[in-house]
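haha ok so turns out i had the wrong file open the whole time. this is the CORRECT one, sorry everyone. sequence first:
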Amino acid sequence: MIGLVLVFGMVLAGTVTVVVLGAGAIDDTQRQVGQERTEKAMTQFDSKVALVALGNTDVQQVSFGQDRRNNYDVEEGAGWLRVTIENQTDGTTKTLLNESLGAVTTENGDTTLAYQGGGVWRTAGGNTSVMVSPPEFHFRGGTLTLPVVNVTGAERLGDRVSISNRETVTKYPNASAGDVNPLSNHRVHLTVKSDYYQAWGSYFEERTDGEVDYDHARNRATLNLVVPIGKKRVDNALSGSASREIALAGDGDDPCTGGAGGDRRYTDSYNSSNGDYCSTRDDSDGNLTYAGNVTLSGSSGVRGTTRSGNVIEISGSGNITGDALHTNGCIGCDASPGGNVGGVIDPIYGIDFPTQIDRVVSRTVQDVADSNDNGAAADVDDATDSLAYASGEAELPAGKYYLTEIEPGSDEDIIFNTTDGDITVAVENYIDLGANGDSNTVSVVGDGDVMVYVNGSATAPGRDDMLYMSQNDAIETGGQNATQFKLYGQRDFNATLKSSGSNRAEFVGILYAPAGASGSGSLTLDQGNVWGGVLTGDVTLANAASLSYDEALRSEQAISRDAKVVKITYLHVSVSRVHVS
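then structure:
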């Protein structure tokens, strides 16, 4: 009897388990099948709308199925798309299109599926939206073709709907309005406001080399495209795109006198084509450009022109030997004979900065990671992708190298030997010369160039920096020739040169890491010396730091003009308004 009861109980328990689990599995399967059926119906609807919108036919019909379990609704005015074009020569901006998109939506549990702007999008449980099928957006070879689709119609759709084209209007090119191809020195901005903006933005990033900015508070994604990079030069000692303040206080230092007296300044210039800094320096081209406020106090000096995207303010015996160009005012500025401004004091209309080069950096690092000369270099450990310091020194000949990071130990030096050609170094994480507290030197020998791309996948231990240098650390070239060393970073690239007393960190070359419109990149220069030119985001100068612009950079291409940066040459924009009933 007991055995019979146990067997009966086991059978009953197993049956209940099978029924419960089976019912759950059946429900899950039914939901999945239902979702797949809905996605198929919506994708079919997408293809029919495309036929009508793109002029292949005037009317199309599509069936959502008689056994559907959910409703299909038209949301007129849901989301919008705006295209503006900015003339970078005169600073004017023109709106080419500002069109509502509308949407056809359906819900299945906590999943929403939507047709909008020629694409199908999905959200589930409040999570980030994803793309099911792509929108009408085509970018190839510098040409953007954008047939925008606007949807209107009955609020609730039946089992079978009719799609008709009400009108199609070409927005660009438009010869009568002076809007022609090819574009010349223009920037194109495409902004989408949508419940599915994150999926739109991800698609823009996938299909273009453009810079995509997200405004999460307003459900917006903006794609920025510019004409090809062309002749990109570094023409300032320092350019910063942050909107905060750069303050120059106290005395700049004089590297030619070891910091003891001499002619002190924060920025100045020299020409490595004619000799080293001390033999060729002058006071004409130590230009400083900053998107935010620029303040000079104490005896700080800019030996060149200062450009501010906001306000310039001078107090004490601070001075600018060149022009003071401002957007919102120049406080305490005096251009009279003997005044603190040697040139003119004029208003400007904001500052345009180079866009970020994230894709250039990440793609270069990936390409070099896939194919490099690590195995052929005696001082590279191919197994760990790290430098091997024989007797305290690692030397790299001409070639391409992939390193996880550059982090020498105490008194270990690096030599880039360009005698037989140029050197490209792809660094996955960071360059940390200052962690050990002792001096480390990176030297360029020979007549070739060294290009270092820092991906910034990780920062220096205990810091937020992708480049960190401390006292007596140096990156140097012969004769302080800044054209030979180029360091590239993404929009969030942070660099710190921090020294103590006369033991200065010294950098010779180009630091090219523009922050673009949304980056958080920065340079902190605390008692350090820079010879060459810097493009970054935020800037902190302290304790008699100095920046000296190498005028030889004026004839130097800072980044390859063939680089796949955000670029556009031809633009085709239209809007098709379709009605669904």
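The chain has two domains: 38-229+568-580, 238-555.
again sry for the mixup
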